[in-house]
Amino acid sequence: MHSNISIFVPHVGCPHKCAFCDQNAITGKQKLPHKDDVERACLQALGQVDDIADTEIAFFGGSFTAIPRDYMLELLSAAHKYVGEGRFKGIRISTRPDYIDGEILDILKSYGVTAIELGAQSMSDEVLTANERGHSAEDVRRASRLIRQNGFELGLQMMIGLYKSGHRQEDETFDEIMAIRPDTVRIYPVVILKNTRLAKLLESGEYKPMSFDEVLGLSARALGAFTEAGIRVIKCGLHASEIVEQDMVGGFYHPAFRELCEGLLYRQRMETELDKAEKDGRLTANKELVFAVKKGCMSKAVGQKKANIGYFEGLGCKVKVTEENGIGLYEVRLLDDAEAAHRYSIYNKKLIKRSKVCGCFYCGKIFAPDEVSSWINEGCGTALCPYCGIDSVLGDASGYPVTENFLHKMHERWF
Fold first, then answer.
1. Domain spans of the chain, in order of start
2. Which of 6, 19, 22 is nearest to 244 (CA)?
3. Packing angle, helices 137-149 and 102-110, rounded to 10
């Protein structure tokens, strides 16, 4: 599993003060790392990381290629000692798109840099100018081409909800990043810090941010679409930090922002499946819905604090989520009743004892629960049919009908 040894390099020497950045606050609260700090972090990580071959030394926090050249080389030299020959995979940096050229890339390559992330933030020149980024969308395109041509992994960072950015500008950014097809993306909803131009614009009323739900929806869309396109989203939302907690005056911070995005994605895809089932006449009368998702994704699909379960209950639907192999991340499949009922034929001892009638969807026999005398699987137990001996017993306490027609439907589905 990929991991980073993160070394924060504050905005020393950064050539621009963007509208959303308080350089003094950030730099003042962080110690500048030097050679010894880098070597100490690398030595410590050598004995801690699980997969050294998939670990990068990562210089984050500022515009790495815009810092004084001697300082940049000091950091790279210290890190380069720990790259290759059974050590770390490489070095990852983040920087501005207008501080990338052939000479810089040659230097980075010679010191073992493997991945370069560009702070694109927006691909709308109108938004970039309004937020005083000091570069254009074309700078992002040009730098991205150079990075790719020189064999580096390319990452782009986007910021949602900036000053002067509405849905049209967000669509423009999304479409352009999709067209560039970076290897990785970071999605940052805007956080407004005090002592920034954005804070002043917010206070004056000139900056009227979108609603939280709008930014959440745009972020979720980007997360889903990038993932489907094979673009790895390595960050969605900001980590909690002292700076965010003390200096935030507005914006779209939430400590579990990615979790909110994932929950919204699953809810939207559940709604799509529900709409299809309604149009096709596949909904059961009791509106009990069972959605299958990728293994390991049940908590994402249920939503933070089971928000998605509550949402569908408000629509009069009882929703359950199960996990299956063969389903992609953020994909959802609405199980029909024959599929959904099958899960009640496994570890069903308590359920059988609560039932009034049981049936076997292998041989089709219908019988009383006390006729079941054989079980497999210890503890919860799975009932075996008293007539054919197959573990295909369904009790009516499951909520599904134990009738000849329904058992036949299950037989066709499972045998």
1. 3-245, 263-335, 342-414
2. 22
3. 40
What is d(CA 49, CA 39) in angstroms, rounded to the nearest whole number? Answer: 15
**What pLDDT is recorded for position 28?**
45
| Three-state SS at 121 | strand
Which residue has tokens 């993932």?
227
- Reported confidence tier of residue 247, pLDDT bands at 50, 70, 90: confident
Residue-wise pLDDT tens digits, 323-335? 988 999 999 999 9
Q: Which CATH superfamily is domain 3-245 in?
A: Aldolase class I (3.20.20.70)
Tell me the C-alpha distance between 162 and 329, whole Å.
Answer: 29
How many CB atoms are closer than 10 A to CB 332? 23
Tokens of 318: 């009882």
Q: What is the mean pLDDT of the chain?
A: 91
Nearest CA-CA partner of 67 in 39, 92, 95, 91: 95
Cβ atoms 209, 253 nearer than 8 A: no
Residue 304 near residue 263 (C-beta atoms within 8 A): yes
CA dist., res. 118 & res. 185, Å (int): 9
pLDDT of residue 51: 83
Sheet strands side by side (includes 393-395): 366-367, 358-360, 393-395
223-241 pLDDT, tens digit per residue, is 999 999 999 999 999 877 6
Residue 165 burial (CB count, 10 A)? 25
Give tens-digit pLDDT for 298-325: 999 999 999 999 999 998 888 989 998 8
Q: Which helix (H) or strand (E) holds 6?
A: strand 3-8
Cα first-last separation, the chain: 39
User: With 50 as the cut, is the pLDDT of residue 24 above it?
Assistant: yes
What does the pLDDT read at residue 8? Answer: 87
Do 263-335 and 3-245 have the same topology in CATH?
Answer: no
How far is it, in rounded angstroms, from Cα 188 to Cα 235? 8
Please answer whether residues 114 and 89 qualify as being in contact, where contact means their C-beta atoms are separated by less than 8 angstroms. yes
Decide which of 1.10.10, 3.30.70, 3.30.300, 3.40.1350 is the CATH code for 263-335: 3.30.300
d(CA 395, CA 387) in angstroms, rounded, equals: 15
* Closest of 68, 74, 55 to residue 115, by C-alpha: 55
